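hey can u run this one w/ flavin mononucleotide bound, need the structure tokens asap thx
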Amino acid sequence: MTYYYNGFPQSEHDEKLNLINVDQLEEDAKRVIPEGAYYYIASGAENEWTWRNNTAAFNHYQIVPRALTDMEDPQLDTEFMGMKLKTPVMIAPIACHGITHKDAEVATQKGAAAAGALFSSSTYANKSVEDIAAAAPDAPRFFQLYLSKDWNFNKMVFDAVKKAGYKAIMLTVDALISGYREANLRTEFTYPVPLDFFNRYLGAKGEGQSVAQMYAASAQKIGPKDVARIKEESGLPVLIKGITCVEDAYKALGAGADGIYVTNHGGREIDGSPATIDVLPDIAKAVNHRVPIIFDSGVRRGSHVFKALALGADLVAIGRPYLYGLALGGAKGVESVIEQYNKELKIDMQLTGCKTIDDVKKAKIMHINYTADNLPSNTDPSRMKPYPVTSENQPQEDLDATSGASHH
Ligand SMILES: Cc1cc2nc3c(=O)[nH]c(=O)nc-3n(C[C@H](O)[C@H](O)[C@H](O)COP(=O)(O)O)c2cc1C
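ok here u go:
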């Protein structure tokens, strides 16, 4: 069940996962993902305080159970920017899915489509936007843009994504450079699988580049004028990904944003920045339904999805958990992960008398600022070792680098 790309092991699993919760995936995924790649995914910036608190801060909000609601069989389907979706859970854009699975973004798109969830593709995807679209032609999908310093590159990207039927661009503005991620330094991580847009444009392969090198190709100087230019040149709606304060929400709206994406990049950028759930309510109030809101970072439970919707989000994105699901079960694994969130969310909907996602958006939430748990860092060296050695997660050094592939 393992494929080797130039000696780098990629999972070939394609099976449903028997999940109790999505947290277990973080440990289980080590069985099939090589160590450096695993810690590239799992890590946050510096001491990972923000990474931990993204999840812990959901405890600041409490779902008030509702009685005598005379309701059964809650429904998860929802509409977002004119698209009909079967769940408010969406797939956040993540670079280089090929570090976990041979079919990379193609498998993730298939899994998302099977669950009726919105998929979004990173600029740093391994697979081409055309191949991803062909994997589920009728499914809706967004494209995440790391704006390049080179507008010829940007134009090539706009043309390709528009032609491939992507419905909107999400411009990432919170990761102009990489956060200080110590795990990547310890493992000396470089991208082992080529990234399609870099292949196409540079003729270069993208593989072997460090995270810092990849960011160097993208623009650091991004302002409101760029939003207008992206809208104009692409002809697509533009959402701004990386808003964590009211001032920036106003700025994004002023620049013509068609949507606001509240995220701190899963705690991978500024350590010590607030948990996103703590900034969502004020941003939602400021935006006041003028444009839709996507939310992510630290969402690990159906109850987290519920709270985010009730506090102002229209869609709730998940990051690392689906990538672990991809590693362990391919497209079906991604589907299983979304189903797990759906299952937990439905329980909360029944117990609060929410028949629809619109009802969840009006649900009663209390706010008591419990102190967040002070857990140890996930990538603390003492927790990084020993890393399990399995037949599927070991690089193969004796393979011919030019021919690449072999099955075991
Ligand atoms: C390994 C990894 C790679 C990521 N790559 C991108 C990317 O290419 N573009 C982007 O906008 N966000 C990227 N993100 C951030 C995610 O879109 C999302 O905001 C974050 O993962 C949500 O937090 P969670 O993982 O705690 O759910 C990445 C996150 C991870 C974990």
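The chain has a mean pLDDT of 93. anyway lmk if its weird
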